[in-house]
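Re-running the complex after MR caught last week's input typo. The corrected sequence lines follow. Everything else is unchanged.
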Amino acid sequence: MATTVEIATPRRSAVFHPRPIELAIVSLSIEGTSAHTNRTRKLAKDLKSLMKFLMITFLLVLGSAGTTLAGDAQEKSVALGLAKESGRLKSRFLKATQAVTTATRAIPKANVAYFHQSVVPVLNRSCLGCHGPEMSEGRLRVDKLDADLLTGSDVERWREIYNVLSNSEMPPEDEPDYALADADRGNIVDWLGDELNKASLIRRGKQEHSSFRRLTKYEYNYALQDLLGLPYALADNLPPETASGDGFKNSSELLQMSAMQFETYREIGLKALKRATVSGNRPEPVTYIVSMQEEMDTATSGKEDKTFDQSDESYGRNRKRQHLFNRETGKGIHFSGGKSMPQTDAATVQTPPVSSVVLALPRSDELKLNLDRFLPDEGIMRVRIRAGRSTMNADEYASLRLVFSAHTSNNANFSQVISERDIPVTASADNPQFLHFDIPLGDIQRNPFRKLTTTFPRRDEFLHIRNVSNAGKAEEPLNVLIDYIEIIAPFYQQWPPQTHTDIFVESDKSDEEAYGREVLTRFLRRVWRRPVTSSEVDPFMDLYTEYRPGFSSFEDAMLEVLATALATPEFLYLTQRAVTNARNSAGLISELELASRIAIFLWSSIPDAELLKLAEQGRLTEADVLSAQVRRMLADRRSERFSQNFVRQWLGMDGLDSVIHVTDSSLKEAMHEEPIAFFDEVLRSNRSVMEFIHSDFAMVNERLAAHYRIPGVHGPHFRKVPIEPQTQRGGLLTCAAILTMNSDGKDSHPLKRGVWMLERVLHDPPPPPPPNVPEVDLTDPEILKMTLKERIADHRNKPACISCHSRIDPWGIAFENYDAMGTYRTQIKDQPVDATSQLFNSQALAGMDGLKRYLLTDRQDQFTRALVHKMTAYALGRPLSFGDHADIDTLTAQFRTQGDHLGDLVHLIISSKIFSSR
Amino acid sequence: MNNKSVWLSRKTFLRGAGVALALPWLETFSADGRDADRTPKRFVSIYHPDGVGLPLKSDPAWKDWSWFPRGGEKNFELSKVLDVLEPLRNDITIYSGLSHPAVRKVHGHSNADQYLTGADTRGHGRYQNSISIDQVYAEHAGEFTRHSSLVMSTNGGIGGPRGAQTQSFNREGRPIPAMNKPRQIFDMLFLKSGKDAAARLARSKSALDLLINNTRSLGRQLSSHDQETLTQYLDAVRDTEVKLAKAQKWIDTPIPRVDTGNLHMDAEPREARLYFQTMYELIYLAFLSDSTRAATFQLGRENGEGPHDLLSMAVGLGGAHGLTHEVKKPDGWKNLGTYNRYQAEEFGRFVQRLKDTPEPTGKGNMLDNTFAMHGSASSSFHLSRNYPIISAGGKNLGFTNGRYLKFGQGNEDNQAGAGILSDAGWRGDIEADELPLAQLFVTILQRLGVETDSFAGSSGTLNRV
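Corrected-run output:
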């Protein structure tokens, strides 16, 4: 039976080294000598008794109400609620601001005193013999090394020493005279680990980082979409970005540019422009009409009567299959789709009145339409479907999804979901509504043989309309009833389309030269996010003049010029000019640059006309105008990109993409969506960020709720659901995505989870592991017998490992009640789960509840500051350096004072000085 | 051997070589010294669908018509299927026990797509491929030649997903259309005027000039730190300019003139012998004139039907795909083996031609500097394992030939999956262990000078090769 692992507290009591910067906060509460901390302790004690009192009262009330809720779980929830309050009272940030700044601005210092006191004697005893004045093996003399790793020049030598000591490669085993005691080895490794870490922080922290950077792949994609009004993925050809040490992909120093990348920008730009514009006359669309009335007529016209009637005994069985059904007569016939040919007189197509003959499409069935080979190569295919629900049971939902396929010869086939999202069917059968999909035909996998003049390989293409539903096995199951389908391609809402007239504006076109200048001036203004001067347009006009003779139309020549504009650095980069003016001499960016910075932060894209106009008028820096704009932008749908991209990068959710043990794709999608939906909810409702640690609600859809065993959640959309403590959820830490990606595919992975906690939640990344870490030897029968937790303890207690692992593992062990799928468990292989652990500061964590309670009680400041740090780094698109820490402290203090509300934080960051600074 | 295909005369060769000397790659090489000895390294892959004949040992046809050789690494014995390669014995290597692991359980008909890519193209549903080995090499060596690669197939175009009619896929995994008409290929290689290309280049050049000026003027308004970041952009534009200049040079360089004596420009696949020889000759001429260093050629398509399935008419047999289904009919194994034998014969003729032509730079013969492979992504009937692969040449690249290399374990006599008759046989469980073909690809790429240690997610090279 496993017991709580005791971790030998390494040397901390002698001299505590605040881990640079971030841990400085922690150090205050851990060092435990200051009167301030004692006061906090007393406060906590008082609160504890208060809590107990409240709890008893609460339970009494519950008891009298006759509730049979699990008392223990209830108790925990109450405790967590109170922990939020009590923890808040401990905040440094809510006290004198002076204390804050002095505490955290301290730049790490080398701990040379410990070196002289404790390291030198050991080195002299065990190393000097071979690496000293007598002999200097490997040209190393330990007595000549600079003990200050932060400013000294021997960091690399020290790193080698750190490596050989932590691997137990030195002193050599065959030199018993120089043997190194485990405790001594541990001490040196600890000291070196700390010093090396500080040294690298110093080096990184001293670097100047600029927010001048290229757009990321996803920002470029959104910018192009918003600029041209095209809602499709345009930038897939660009290489993916690398994440910074902080986990951010928009970090300036990592956004490189290469010739290959540059050429791809040029290609994408021209292709997108060609897609946004049109030439010539409005193309005659291909139109397919599928009327279920007609299908019924055809299906029943045969000699053999295969119809059935709803009064038949077999109807219950028949209606479980896809069939055509006359709602008036009760007659039906099986039907799974057929071949459709384009209408010849499409122009005269009038939407017919609702028919009583419908296709009844049960759950997971699909109508497969053979469209032959007549769909055009490019343009939008609009699929309009008139549909209603057969029953209106609120627990059931149904939605439609489009799939496209071809089967060109034996085993040469493909099928692909082409609709971006499922569209729910909400209307009743009596009052069906049209829903529609717009599919870009040039972007989907098509049948390459469709233009053959021969018939083999086969040329036809298929559109499948699938019912994605949770319909149960009730007496009367929910079907989707469709009476009419229209497919039009290419589909244009208007001619020329707005995407075209946004570029080639309606204006006097008689003088190509003058019109060209007008088009260019407007376009450049939007591309560069600023007013442009006539002399800036000149070179583009010159280019146009050079190109024009090579093209048959004005538009074709101009598109090439516009594509060049899309390759200019002012489109691809976020600029900050160093020109002299009043704002600039104060180190601030211009208002126009500010507009771009806000848009990139909240929309991952370029500013819109309103924002640009205010910036141009010089009004964006007025406090009320600015905050009104931020509110407007957050209310805009484009701000969903903020939730998505920030959460993905903050929590490192790329990790979920490489998870292969979640095989149910709808579950994996739901896992992916949950943290984003959760963040979005906290943001939109301006809730406290303490909800990220623990909340009494969850954001789930049906699939995820089933995974969490939360009853009564129906439908694929995410919504806020109150949860009972027994679900063991609430907050981000227990999101299945986090637990799943931090597992090894079979079981939990406490180390990964611990590292994740430190890196993502507490912003206290552990140093990277030393090279050649010995693998846990799974062929050793003694090790095989151990539980996972025991194995970890066994590994950790090796002197070379203990230092880092004692900082990481306990955090991860607290997650042990959650398996590799993120499912809650109380047993592992017939043994009760042991999720208790002890942090290196002797703080005991009793599982997830204990972890949450500890974070809420004692780590609120660290967590909020970590979040402020992360979001500011994301907002600025650069790593933060030592020089920024005072600003982060100020922001955190303001944020905490205002009550830790997430929405406020966005406003605070945007109106802060650091956000407007160069 | 067919006497009609006259070997390139000494005079023709000199003409070819002379033209080659005028090409701009000499400057390119001397400029960056990447290939000091100036001898091109070449890669060509020939793919044939439908696999090969693999009767059971108990079958009387086994002795003559089983594709794989018998015996050891050096003292191997070729069956009737490959005996046409006996004169080239010391110039070829035959492999067994190699396949791409991701699709071993996929029907052979769907598998031509991944022969050179190793991607998990699966049997149905969403389709995604990845870059093929010839294109990895083309990215590396393409700048030294007018065409980065030559992609050919009898059927032309790209085919359909899981029904490829090209062996070449780009970095995004998209198929590169194959050319199939000799005249078009010849025109592309040796006639094309490049007028459009010249106009496009001129436009690009002006655009780059504009971008450079625009960037400079932006740079003047930035801090020195940010200017440095912008330098990267400027460098990217300049690198692109250099590429354009190279492209321009190709346009300005006269197209090499070659001997067209062996070309039958209008040959169709149904005239298999003429067509085969012409296509191989085009590869040969493209290599000789150093117009490209990477080529692929796919013979027919998997599950072939229609006119392109008629290559087997060269040996008086009906549709090629049908031969694989009819092995249990009288002379079934013999017929399939005879067609495979014919494919080997044509490949051998091409190999011999390379061998007989001295390398224009004087270093050995052309075969010594060319790695030529010939194979299929299935062995026995629809079975996506134990690909039957022959390679030839590459002596100067480090390949030692005259060997039969068996890889993997548990299938020493190539009986696993042999004699499959039912169309579902490919689903059966196969116990034998095979090695990833991608390891051979890594070896090939490294010897061609590409720095890589993995291909299609498989790392490491193949021992003994």
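None of the earlier attempt is carried over here. Residues 35-64 of chain A form the longest helix (30 residues). Residues 22-106+861-916 of chain A form one domain.
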